[in-house]
Design brief:
The protein has 90 residues and is mostly helical. 36% of the residues lie in helices and 4% in strands.
């Protein structure tokens, strides 16, 4: 496991960790025995719903919605209607 995690563990540390890791693995095996028939998978204990907004172009002049050309005129570089950025992958 130390090799997979790419950490260096001495023999003394390893001997101390073995019982602890065995306990963790036994607990994980216990979880596998739990009957979860009919239980829906979830990503969190508390449902986390995000408020969504309509995906529309904002015509408000204070937020520059719908004024792409004016915004890009302030950019150091623009290509095909988008901000131009330096290549970062060689």
């Amino acid at each position: 496991m130390a090799a997979l995690a790419r950490i260096k563990v001495s023999e003394a540390e390893l001997e101390a960790m073995v019982p602890e890791l065995n306990g963790i693995l036994a607990w994980v095996e216990q979880l596998g025995e739990v009957d979860v028939t009919g239980v829906e998978p979830m990503t969190a204990v508390i449902p986390n719903t995000l408020r969504l907004r309509d995906d529309v172009i904002d015509a408000d002049p204070l937020t520059a919605g719908g004024r792409r050309d004016e915004v890009l005129a302030n950019a150091p570089a623009a290509e095909h209607g988008f901000f131009g950025v330096p290549k970062v992958i060689e």
